[in-house]
Design brief:
- The structure is a single chain.
- It is built from eight helices and 15 strands.
- With about 280 residues, the chain is α/β, with parallel strands linked by helices.
- It has two domains: about 55 residues, Vcp-like ATPase, Chain A, domain 2 (Roll); about 190 residues, Rossmann fold.
- It has a seven-stranded mixed β-sheet, sandwiched between helices. A four-stranded antiparallel β-sheet has the order 2-1-6-5, with helices on one face.
- Strand 8, helix 5 and strand 9 form a beta-alpha-beta unit.
- The longest helix has 13 residues.
């Protein structure tokens, strides 16, 4: 069924690669740009994907916003985790419908919104943020997206403890993630996944040391670089070339899995349990 624009919807208005606006449709109002304005009453009831002209005659396209659009356009006071990193966290940590995720360092709620979008309809994100001002922004952004049922915020220092147990994933965006490693271990379910986003190698080194000390395994580190390509026309010819600017280093992603504390069987035990006259005995 064709989805049509309704009053109160959030839409993405696109002019070109750079000029893109995330706005809420409101009856009787208009959205103003340097290319002219669009009256919302003129697009309400029209299908998403429609093209419309501004008051100055410029052609704009109207789309449904994605999680990445909301991430970039969120009202924020802190640095966001870029979509290239956020999407990699989702797939590598196996976050999806029904996942229970603890996020520490929620900031303005950018990554929180991405997590909440993907854990619905039965999952939950528990956001720990010590800064009350940041938390207000995060709550506002989550409410704006209608994701409140899937997020529970806590104005609390995660170092004092995580209230939830048997969670699937713990995601950290903190200055000292290594200090949270033992707390994360207690909160995670068996083989649960630890994720940390850190800008510097020094932070990563300290985090890895803590992970090894506190019984985490399968430790992996990634750095993602993203280079967009530009599409343009030269007369009748389509020209495709890499952009001169790209999203290079944003941070390092560290992943690890919670290991069991159950003792490893010794070789002696293995020999005692091996049945006599087995395949190795030659009988």
């Amino acid at each position: 069924m064709e989805r049509r624009i309704q009053n109160g919807d959030y839409i993405l208005i696109v002019y070109d690669e750079i000029r893109r606006w995330l706005v809420q449709v409101k009856e009787g109002e208009a959205y103003h740009t340097n290319k002219g304005f669009i009256k919302f009453d003129d697009i309400i009831g029209k299908p998403l994907g429609v093209r419309t002209r501004t008051s100055k005659g410029h052609l704009f396209s109207i789309f449904t916003p994605t999680a990445a659009d909301f991430l970039f356009k969120a009202v924020r006071q802190t640095q966001i985790i870029y979509p290239k990193d956020a999407s990699f966290i989702l797939i590598t940590a196996g976050i999806g419908p029904g996942s229970r995720v603890v996020e520490a360092g929620s900031g303005s709620g950018g990554m929180t919104s991405v997590l909440a979008f993907y854990v619905q309809p039965t999952g939950k994100v528990y956001g720990y943020e010590i800064n009350a001002e940041f938390l207000k922004k995060a709550q506002k952004n989550i409410a704006r997206l209608g994701l409140e049922p899937f997020v529970e915020f806590k104005n609390k220092d995660v170092l004092t403890g995580i209230e939830e147990v048997d969670v699937d994933v713990v995601v950290l965006d903190l200055v000292t993630p290594w200090e949270v490693v033992p707390v994360a271990y207690s909160a995670l379910k068996a083989a649960g996944i630890f994720v940390s986003f850190s800008p510097t190698v020094v932070q990563v080194e300290k985090t890895i040391e803590a992970l090894r000390t506190h019984n985490f395994g399968d430790i992996r580190i990634y750095e993602l670089l993203l280079r967009p390509w530009q599409l343009s026309r030269k007369r009748e010819e389509v020209v495709i070339r890499p952009q001169t600017q790209m999203i290079g280093h944003t941070g390092f992603l560290t992943f690890a899995r919670k290991m069991s504390l159950e003792p490893i069987e010794s070789e002696e035990q293995n020999l005692e349990e091996r049945p006599a006259g087995g395949a190795d005995s030659g009988e």
